[in-house]
Structure prediction request, 110 residues.
Amino acid sequence: MRIVTRKEFLTLPVGTVFAEYEPCIVGDMRIKGENAGTNDWFYQEIDLALDCEDSGEMVELLDASEKTGKSIPMGFDCQSRDGTFNDTQLYAIYEKQDVKQLITRLTETL
Prediction:
């Protein structure tokens, strides 16, 4: 893993696995999508990638699962736009070896 500035992050390719970073705190893991202009981009959630149409449906699914234990299928086709425009934000970048190790560890849980 390495830490980069927003300026450097915007130069990274689609498919980069990342999280927002502030000193000693790493946010949710995401996958970078296409840039949206010169200072914004799309991303895909990894940990909350639910199979739903929008945030309203996501809330309904989470609420139903909380109340009933109903399983919620994962979906990895939906993207969100960053839209924060915080030029001081730092990012933790998961490098190829990190992702390989994560895949190995997740596979071990099956």
Q: What stands out?
A: Strands lie at 2-5, 17-22, 25-26, 30-35, 41-45, 80-81, 90-94. The chain has a mean pLDDT of 94.
